[in-house]
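Hi all, posting the design record for the shared folder.

TITLE: backbone redesign
STEP: 1 of 1
STRUCTURE INPUT:
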């Protein structure tokens, strides 16, 4: 539907769409888990246990790119970190 200037709403508002990163490790596939938050009075509420993900510049599948990796994968050496000065291949 045109507005007062004769433009459609989609052309009038040119904003970037927010891209949400999924909370999944790209190496091992670790995802958020669901559990209970239990208070001292034993009131139970649902909660999420999110993995500790870090954005790391690493060599993944032969390419250098930034990936989301959990700290367990980083510590265990499942990824090869690449310094900033190295070229992307």
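Okay, here is what came back for every position:
SEQUENCE:
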């Amino acid at each position: 539907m045109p507005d007062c200037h004769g433009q459609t709403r989609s052309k009038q508002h040119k904003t970037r769409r927010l891209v949400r990163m999924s909370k999944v490790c790209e190496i091992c596939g670790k995802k958020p888990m669901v559990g209970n938050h239990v208070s001292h009075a034993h009131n139970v509420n649902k909660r999420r246990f999110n993995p500790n993900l870090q954005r790391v510049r690493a060599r993944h599948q032969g390419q250098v790119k930034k990936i989301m990796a959990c700290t367990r994968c980083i510590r265990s050496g499942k990824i090869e970190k690449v310094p900033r000065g190295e070229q992307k291949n």
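COMMENT: The helical segments are 9-12, 71-76.
Let me know if anyone wants the other runs.
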